[in-house]
Amino acid sequence: MATTRGRRTNPLRHRPQGWRLAIVGVNSAALALAFSTLSPAPAARAENPTFPTSVVDVSGTAGLAEGEEFVAANPFNPMDVIVGSNQWQPYSGNPGNVGVGPSGATDCAVFDSHDGGLTWTGQRLDNGGIGTVPIPPPVSSIPNPIGSQFEDFGNVISADQSIVFDHHGNAYYQCIYLGLSNADPQVWVFRSTDAGRTWGPKVVAFSEVGTQIQIDRPFLAVDNSGGPRDGALYLAYETMFYQAYLPEVYVERSDDQGATWSSPVRVDEDANRAQWDPREFPQVGADGTLHVLYDASPLTSPCPCDPSTPALVVASSEDGGATFRHSTVDPEVHRISSQDEAFNYFQELVAAFAASPADPNRLAVAWPDAGSGEDRILLRQSLDGGRTWQDAADATDDPPGGGNQHDHATLAYLPDGALAIAWRDRRASGGSLTSPFEVFLRLAVPAGDGLAFGDTVRLTDAVQAPTTGHHGNMPTEYMSIAGDSTGIHASWDQLDASVAFPDNVYRHVATADLPRPTTPTATPGEADIPLPNTVPAAPAWAAGIMLGGLAAALVAGGRRRRRAGSRPEAYSASIARSR
Questions:
Q1: Any idea which of 91-95, 192-196, 334-338, 459-463 has the lowest mean pLDDT?
Q2: 78 neighbors 116 (Cβ within 8 angstroms)
Q3: Global pTM?
Q4: Which of 296, 307, 382, 367 is nearest to 336 (CA)?
């Protein structure tokens, strides 16, 4: 079946209407009031929502490449769906596939649909650069789509976006912006009260100059618990691998719908120190507890010379991100070699994380693991709020030993507590990581202290050509699913009809079409066992390798270094300001 193409506008040409709010001269207090008083009215909910039953091309951008999707649906009206993604802008016609052009390497794009994903509108919410400039000759003589390369001129790299809905109907979108518009890597947060049709003014939630932290991979989470911190937003992030001190993970909180943000609080600890590129990801449990997953390693180095293996650690906070307890999800994970998962010269691991909306004690972590000799999707769950973790279960449905490689694990809970697991799979095309792929999904339902798995559903309409090598010099490291009462919303990237660049795509699977086990029986080998709460200490001889790796990373680092002697803990004032 061919992929459906939805109606859309070019995300580089369409500009949001925004709020009719003059922000010049508006102080922080006034902006906070505007954010807190402009609560959305509940949208009309479709009585019998109808979603497309095949894959829809969300972005459809010629000459541009999208990847690393986030999908979210409006809790008031599931027909309102938003997909955010990074957008690579390789110079058109470049035979070397270099992912840098006049508008930088990467930009931030967001797409909204209000008919259940059938049609889409795209936009870029702001510019890392100075916006559109005339195309200079002789470049203007090159056929389109070269013109799009000059629509955010001076952008350097704007990336690592994410999107969430709160249960009041507010949508939040964030991304790192760096370019001529600010000359300071900042995280800008935007709020929409109409499910992405329009977006309010940007708020600076993070500034490298203000914090003296070199940031990487910020992600949003929201408290929808109905508890004392209901509606609180969390922004978790990690230090850039070339920052001139040991890696760390941080979190900030906003209690006023993103208008102002707290000072950063460290999430990891010395006994469970994050490794370089720790791939943190936040979730908020049904009781309002904040949980942050990250990769930890006693050596902290991302280089292949590191003899240690990463561990997966969850930090949990019951006081709004002020203090954390830590537990080890898995003390020894085995990173796979997929070039679409991450660069192989980093010993990082991209894991998925979800918190049940039905049970505050139930959490789940999944990741692709090469420990068996082939890349399988392993899953661990916690039944006590992240204090202990069950044995790992193989979440895939194909028998091991066939050489089928899996990657891009992603998780989402349904409102009733069923867990959805999706991944990329090559069983139909030879099995190697460079083979064409399909995307599969299956449910796991609670069965006593374990999980019972249902049959697998294929999300892709057909086997897809590999995306590796078609997106400039950046990997497309993950995909996204979201669950609600209608079923599962899924978004990933696959090559467009021209087989030139990956596009964002979307698929909805209705609850009735998600097979559940007919006789819920726990998967064998899932006894609830406590794991050590600290990562094993590195041997003394490892310090030399760590320092050598740190020195090499500092040489490779491209952004300005942290000023000597400054620590983020010294910054007590809120760094959030409106622009």
A1: 91-95
A2: yes
A3: 0.83
A4: 367
